[in-house]
Amino acid sequence: MAEFSNKEVSEIVSSFIKNNLQRGVAVAAICQALEAKGASPQAAKALVDSIASQYSEGTHRLGLVFDIVGDCNARCAWCVSGITGKGKVQKNFIDFNRFKQAIERLLAMDVLVAPPNRIITLYNWGEPLLHPRFYDILAFLNDHQFSINLSTNGSVPPKKVDPLLFSNVVYFGLSMPGFTQESYDRIHGFRMERILSNFDEWYQLLRQAHVSNRIFINFHLYKFTLRDDILKARDYFSRYPDVRFSPYAAYIADYTLVSQYLSGTMDADVLLKAEQELFLRPIADTVGKWDKDKKCPHIYNGLVLDESCNVVLCCAMSPSHPDYRIGSLFDLSLPEILREKANRQVCRECIELGVLYWHSNPYFLGDVKI
Ligand code: SF4
Ligand code: SF4
Question: From atom 2 of ligand 1, which residue's Cα is the shortest distance away?
Answer without folding.
Answer: 153
